[in-house]
UniProtKB/TrEMBL annotation:
Its cofactor is FAD. Residues 206-326 form the Acyl-CoA dehydrogenase/oxidase C-terminal domain. This is Acyl-CoA dehydrogenase. Pfam families: Acyl-CoA_dh_1. It comes from Ilumatobacter fluminis. It comes from the Bacteria. InterPro entries: AcylCo_DH-like_C, AcylCo_DH/oxidase_C, AcylCoA_DH/ox_N_sf, AcylCoA_DH/oxidase_NM_dom_sf.
Length: 359
């Protein structure tokens, strides 16, 4: 049984699977979570950080399904590079009417955090941006002002980390996150009509695509392991309890992949508020099942640093909190349900409501 399905991004997946497999092989012996300039150059030369964005705005072209296919590969191989963050930043740049940067001028994104706060006056910013992924490596950090307490009219804020006080630590996956402190720091402001909600929805979709790939990777790795690991004179894949874990893994991986690819087919996914929130919440729940089943099927070896399973499961735990935890998303569902004409209208009606929102 295969965890792969046919999808509109399959051509991209077929073309790039060899690149991802060769660059980040399963038996990678050196430190896999170190930012390597040669790998980043290869990624940017292929246009992977701007795929899904129009060429006239500096993008590599392609569809949202193509972007999802790339991010699924990145998740499947636990790629230790900010492909998703750079793509989100490029999307925010294009939505602000500017040409997306890549190569040496790439940007990362500041995800909305409760502790974030920014005050901007006369081009000078004071405040904090917390837990910025790869904020110590990126030449620029982009923040949507309305998502970081700077006011709805703040627009897109471009921050130079070299002008900030930067404190770096590792996230749950062992990758760098930076705390940026701004004290009358010069920043650039771009006008944009993008709302904090639209930005969050895009982030949910991107994160769910990464999670889909990591679940597929965990399922494939577990299936391979239980076929070769023997106990009592036969492969442990012959034991019913182990088979249950494998089936659960494949089910969760295929379900998440199918949902991500369906949402990516929508012309304007940010209009599908209920669909994307359901996708992220389901991905969060499925990730919990996958990590548990994968580690139970592997036993002790799955907990070792030398074995690659933790590189997938730690990322899944990390991404469960990105752009919406289970509790936050459940609360958002409740708010949407409370304001909808009916539950059926909320779930089935894609026509714009009186306030211009999808109900």
């Amino acid at each position: 049984m295969s965890t792969h399905t046919s999808d509109p991004g399959s051509e991209i997946e077929a073309a790039l699977s060899g690149f991802f497999r060769d660059t980040w092989p399963d038996d990678m012996s050196d430190d896999p979570d170190v930012f390597r300039d040669d790998q980043w150059s290869a990624v940017t030369e292929l246009g992977l950080t701007t795929i899904g964005l129009p060429e006239h705005l500096g993008g590599a072209g392609g569809s949202l399904s193509d972007l999802v296919a790339v991010l699924q590969l990145a998740g499947r191989h636990a790629v230790p590079l900010p492909i998703a963050e750079a793509n989100l930043a490029a999307w925010l740049t294009s939505r602000s009417g500017h040409t997306a940067g890549s190569g040496p001028m790439w940007s990362t994104i500041a995800r909305p955090e409760r502790r974030d706060h920014l005050t901007i006056r006369d081009g000078l910013a004071t405040g904090e941006l917390c837990d910025v992924p790869w904020g110590n490596e990126a030449p620029q950090v982009l923040a949507l002002g309305s998502a970081h307490g700077a006011g709805a009219a703040a627009g897109t804020i471009v921050v130079d980390p070299d002008r900030c006080t930067v404190t770096v630590r590792e996230d749950l996956a062992g990758q760098p996150i930076a705390h940026l402190t701004l004290d009358d720091t010069p920043v650039t402001r771009w006008d944009t009509d993008l709302t904090a909600d639209e930005f969050a929805l895009r982030g949910m979709l991107v994160t769910a695509a990464l999670m889909s790939g990591a679940m597929t990777g965990a399922a494939d790795l577990t299936r391979e392991y239980v076929e070769v690991r023997e106990q009592f004179g036969r492969p442990i894949s012959k034991f019913q309890a182990v088979q249950h874990h494998v089936v659960e893994l494949v089910q969760m991986a295929v379900m998440t992949r199918s949902m991500v690819e369906r949402v990516a087919l929508v012309a304007d996914p940010t209009a599908q508020q209920i669909d994307i929130r359901a996708l992220k919440l389901t991905s969060n729940e499925n990730a919990a099942h996958v990590t548990r089943a994968a580690h139970q099927a592997h036993g002790a070896i799955g907990m070792t640093r030398e074995y690659r399973l933790h590189r997938l499961t730690r990322r899944l735990h990390l991404w469960r909190d990105a752009f919406g935890t289970d509790l936050e998303l459940a609360g958002q569902f409740g708010e949407l349900a409370a304001t909808a004409p009916s539950l059926a209208a909320l779930l089935l009606d894609d026509t714009p409501g009186p306030a211009g929102e999808t109900v």
